[in-house]
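Thread: Modeling a multi-component assembly for a lab meeting

Hi all, long-time lurker, first post. My supervisor asked me to bring a structural picture of a complex we are working on to next week's group meeting, and I have zero experience with this. I have the sequence lines for every component (674 residues in total). Could someone generate the structure of the whole assembly? Inputs are pasted exactly as I received them:
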Amino acid sequence: MSRNFSVAVAGATGAVGVEMLKVLEERKFPVSSVKLLASSRSVGKKMMFRGEQLTVEELKPDSFNGVDIALFSAGASVSKEFRKSVVDSGAVMIDNSSAFRMEKDVPLVVPEVNPEDVKNHHGVIANPNCSTIIMLVAVAPLHKAFRLKRMVASTYQAASGAGAKGMNELVVQTGQILRNEQIAPEVFAHRIAFNLIPHIDVFNENGYTKEELKMLNETRKMLHDDSIMVSCTCVRVPVMRAHSESLNLEFACPVTPDDVRRVLSGAPGVKLVDEPSAKRYPMPVDASGQWDVLAGRIRQDISRNDGCGIDMFVSGDQVLKGAALNAVQIAELVALM
Amino acid sequence: MSRNFSVAVAGATGAVGVEMLKVLEERKFPVSSVKLLASSRSVGKKMMFRGEQLTVEELKPDSFNGVDIALFSAGASVSKEFRKSVVDSGAVMIDNSSAFRMEKDVPLVVPEVNPEDVKNHHGVIANPNCSTIIMLVAVAPLHKAFRLKRMVASTYQAASGAGAKGMNELVVQTGQILRNEQIAPEVFAHRIAFNLIPHIDVFNENGYTKEELKMLNETRKMLHDDSIMVSCTCVRVPVMRAHSESLNLEFACPVTPDDVRRVLSGAPGVKLVDEPSAKRYPMPVDASGQWDVLAGRIRQDISRNDGCGIDMFVSGDQVLKGAALNAVQIAELVALM
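Re: Modeling a multi-component assembly
Sure thing. I ran the full set together rather than chain by chain. Output:
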């Protein structure tokens, strides 16, 4: 008989927390009990799980007694504050924030990419950056087949990357613009309705944002290859909850679009949507609500003569595969250990 | 005493036509008379020019008697239909469509990039593709300084690229989505509200769209350099009227971000907006209504070890610099001949 697990969700009322609960249910995760944790202002809120009403409790250091797996999606500072309590209680922390991702002893895992890394955890496993997850689900199988040398990525990132309040600001502000009303950006640095903001997370001295550098550093960590070169430009777009990415890939050997389609058609977590003549290609409205990352617009890079370049466009649900789903998939690996 | 010119605007009631008229007025183009031409269904419409009410006339083969300069923005088939009438009448046709751009005897001109090419016209001068114009205003001065070898571009193209009806569809459909109503895409291949469509113009056999190939072919023609390699991914975004582009540039020699800023700060038609620490970078809301192309997010490409790479983000008004303004600037060059 297989074991059931006591699961805690910290940040249960946020956009990702809500989806974590849904995904645990939809994937029939072997749960013995679920504890919903959040800050004091959400205490007492009711949420449904498997037809049962659960009440949100306050996240406190002693919240983790008897907990096996703690899914965290409450921001980096909360994760840092509670790490010791979780680990000391004997639970495994699966953390959606950027707090511990680059720590040597913390595995950073996309289950389709590097599931074996889960084994090396010391109480904490990190969920990667959402754009990195969506990119690597499609790129890692190509790296394994053809060895990726260099990647130039431009992202089209949804409002959900800033949580429920980001999606709300997009909706409210768009209505205000349509009615010619004054707007007052709060979540995003500038107006997001009918606009783009080429600025996600803070700027580094080298002119890249932290978000852009995560896509380099987390890629190298998960693919265990520090020779991979990556340059990203991360852009917020007025889209609700799926991130898209335009990827220019350079491999160590010549690769044809058919090679890429063959590899991706058998890759877990990837759905090939690549029939331009039928107007079928990845789009955020189609990726929203899906577990798979959509990959398409696959073509030979005509800016190279050596046949080693491929262009590709991907879309993936930021809240699901970019966060909640990936965290639950990590929990599934932990459950199998 | 300088000469005044009789100007005709074909497609006067379209998004670009309306702006052509405004730009002629704002730039004090030496006009002796203006003729507004459109299809029969717009005949009789009134439009203002320099405080004077003008009436739209039907575009016919004999419309160009006495006309010096004919600005065309009525689609490729209309341009093809009337080319002979315009040229036979002795007028110079400045055409905003893609009909003649790659013809050997038709100069393709961005006045900040290759003004000297205007001289070689045989009655027709072509206005380049909007994304190509916006890109080259910022990239051509860098090519002149450092020689561009290869460019990877991902675009974020506004609804205005599909004309007034494209902008209207974005506004109407966005309201419908916010009110949870049914939508029926007509102008764009799919829903554009809160979505992205990685498909502009038709697909070529090699998997690129015509729009993406224009950015390669028109760049080579205008820079007179067929060795430049370009790979583009063109994406429609829910933005009203300014195109943005994420550009990864490879030069023939090492180039620093300061080198790029120095060149661009003196480049005509470019406005450097590159102070990330003050949250200043190019955005479509800021580029809209401006004549200049905004350039920023300038940084050394960290995916190269040779120092020859630069990343940059640009935004430019698609209706103005991408179409109407560039056409009037070409007319200014013709007026000086």
